[in-house]
UniProtKB/TrEMBL annotation:
Domain Fibronectin type-III: start-end pairs: 140-219, 224-307
Gene3D superfamilies: Immunoglobulins
Keywords: Signal
Signal peptide stretch: 1-33
Superkingdom of the source species: Bacteria
Identification of the protein by name: S-layer homology domain-containing protein
Species of origin: Dethiosulfatibacter aminovorans DSM 17477
């Protein structure tokens, strides 16, 4: 073989190889291009049967290169008559399209779904839909029944699958509802009512169910609850109302259902749907039920801010002051106010910093949520004195000689916080006979349970005073108990005179009587001789002399160094001081 022939054959082979390589590259490019084309992967229809002029919902799965979905009635892309470009979600490497198509022709319909991009339409799937000319009219409701109270009739029935709503009729009064229950309210007791129900859908209404008859109950029950209100905080709706005299319990109608309670409030939890809720309340007892209160509505626009925090307490440790409070339901966070400054926190505690000596502070806490900022708790005060020590404001108005005594009463719980706070509001106000009775009865009660020498309270010994009716229950009960225990007498057998200011010699008598009520007369014999050397001794009433000697000898009730001042009117802080001295002195006497 010649050299020319070898070279010619080599050139030919080399040319063929180049052609093969180029063809392979073209095919690879075409394959790559096919991978990026729109592709309709899956198709599903929500309903097999669709009604004329109603919408059919379709779910289409495509690759992510699909930019649009279209439909036609045949396999020609030029006939596409509706297109969607944004109705999809991404799931991995696919798009899930959700589209609605209004069916405008009845009969068996062929529908072709197309997947496309900016270059045109590249992939299609077809399906067939049965389109009925008209949706059948809804069925007549079955199992229609009713029950009644004095002022209401509740009608119920079985759900009709094809219904979108119902009409309920009671004595010609027609109401519409989308539920299978309806409550007619504000009816007359002992009255006969007729009722029936029909169902509705887009094709019309069914016939009414057979007419039923029911009679409301004859009413001998309590009055209608007043001031019924609702409050929506977070996911909780609370219904409240005023107590009704002679009511045994209450029925709350809420969102078409009824609930019973003996309280004057009812809490509905896990309220998640943003819609209207109707509510009303009636009262019940053994004789019957009242009418329901006027039906009211609450919705998300009425959502409330949280209640203000309670159980607010302040503590001092290592020079720092900490405010704590109980968690408030529905609160997202809290705001602490300190004079003119506000501090936000999502916890139920806040540490006060950079407080100045000699300055008075006022503080409170509020809770906040999406419904807004709640009210601040009742503001309290405290002071940092000149030595940098913390002092509660309720002590600020006290005289120096009374301060430690009042603190001791507070720390030992000799009297209730309620009574102590009332007395400290105006510590220099004149002390009344009624107030001192309350203080001494609470002192007696703090020891009577554990003291076997204490006089037993006998209610039969109480006198029938006619001037106590205007007092609150707590004060009246204290006066009657003090009288039965022998701590205090009335100004007569029928009048106590509770508001009269108490004098020092009256206090001496009541303190000695309290000692006897707590420990008997034994401790008095161990005191020894009682000596008094007051220049105004002749001003002491005869009925008070022995009691003045007793309280003075024990260091409970002293004079001013010269006079005893028996007719001098005592004030709140003096009464508290004597209470603390008596607490300590009586305890020492009893332990001997």
């Amino acid at each position: 073989m010649s050299i020319k022939t070898i070279l010619r054959n080599f050139a030919y082979v080399h040319f063929v190889l180049i052609i093969v390589v180029l063809c392979g590259a073209v095919n690879a490019t075409e394959a790559m291009a096919d991978d990026t084309k729109p592709e309709l992967i899956g198709l599903s229809i929500e309903n097999d049967i669709i009604y004329l002029d109603e919408y059919m919902k379709a779910y289409i799965t495509t690759n992510t290169f699909t930019d649009k979905i279209g439909i036609s009635y045949d396999n020609v892309s030029d006939d596409i008559f509706e297109t969607w470009t944004d109705d999809y979600g991404i799931s991995g490497d696919t798009k899930i399209w959700e589209v609605e198509i209004k069916m405008e022709y009845d009969g068996k319909q062929k529908i072709v779904f197309w997947a496309g991009d900016g270059e045109g339409w590249d992939s299609a799937k077809e399906t067939y839909i049965d389109v009925e000319e008209e949706r059948p009219v809804s069925d007549i409701p079955q199992n229609v029944r009713a029950d009644a109270t004095e002022y209401s009739v509740t009608v119920r029935w079985d759900v009709v699958d094809s219904a979108t709503s119902y009409y309920v009729i009671l004595n010609g009064n027609r109401k519409k509802t989308d539920r299978n229950v309806y409550i007619f309210k504000d009816l007359e007791p002992d009255t006969e009512y007729t009722y029936a129900v029909r169902s509705n859908n887009s094709s019309g209404s069914s016939e009414y169910s057979p007419i039923g008859t029911i009679r409301t109950v004859d009413s001998l029950g309590p009055d209608v609850p007043q001031n019924v209100s609702a409050r929506w905080v977070a996911d909780r709706i609370t219904i409240r109302w005023d107590e009704v005299e002679d009511a045994d319990d209450y029925t709350v109608s809420f969102d078409g259902e009824t609930y019973n309670t003996e309280d004057t409030s009812y809490v509905f939890e896990d309220i998640t749907e943003d819609r209207d809720y109707e509510y009303a309340v009636c009262a019940n007892n053994g004789l019957g039920s009242s009418r329901y209160s006027k039906t009211k509505t609450i919705d998300k626009d009425d959502i409330s801010s949280p209640d203000f925090p309670e159980d607010i307490r302040i503590s001092v440790r290592d020079g720092s002051i900490t405010i704590r409070w109980s968690e408030v339901y529905g609160a997202d966070d809290y705001t602490v106010i300190l004079n003119d400054d506000e501090f936000d926190t999502d916890r139920c505690v806040h540490i006060l910093k950079d407080l100045k000596e000699g300055k008075e502070y006022e503080y409170g806490v509020r809770a906040n949520n999406l419904g807004g900022a709640g009210e601040f708790s009742p503001l309290e005060k405290f002071k940092i004195d000149d030595d940098g020590e913390f002092m509660e404001t309720k002590y600020l108005e006290l005289s120096d000689w009374a301060l430690e005594h009042v603190k001791n009463i507070d720390e030992n719980g000799m009297i209730t916080d309620e009574l102590l706070d009332e007395l400290l509001e105006e510590p220099e106000d004149v002390l009344s006979r009624a107030e001192f009775c309350e203080m001494l009865v609470q002192l007696y009660e703090s020891y009577a349970e554990e003291n076997n020498t204490a006089v037993e309270y006998d209610p039969s010994k109480v006198k029938d005073f006619i001037d106590l009716d205007d007092l609150d229950v707590r004060t009246k009960d204290s006066i009657l108990k003090a009288n039965a225990l022998g701590i205090v007498n009335g100004m007569s057998d029928t009048e106590f005179d509770p508001s009269t200011a108490i004098t020092r010699e009256m206090m001496a008598v009541m303190l000695r009587n309290t000692s006897r009520a707590m420990y008997g007369e034994g401790p008095e014999t161990s005191i020894g001789d009682w000596v008094m050397d007051f220049e105004d001794i002749n001003l002491i009433s005869n009925w008070a002399v022995d009691s003045v000697r007793f309280t003075n000898a024990l260091g409970i009730l002293e004079g001013d160094g010269k006079d005893f001042l028996p007719k001098y009117k005592a004030n709140h802080e003096m009464g508290l001081t004597l209470l603390d001295r008596s607490f300590t002195t009586f305890l020492d006497l009893y332990s001997q």
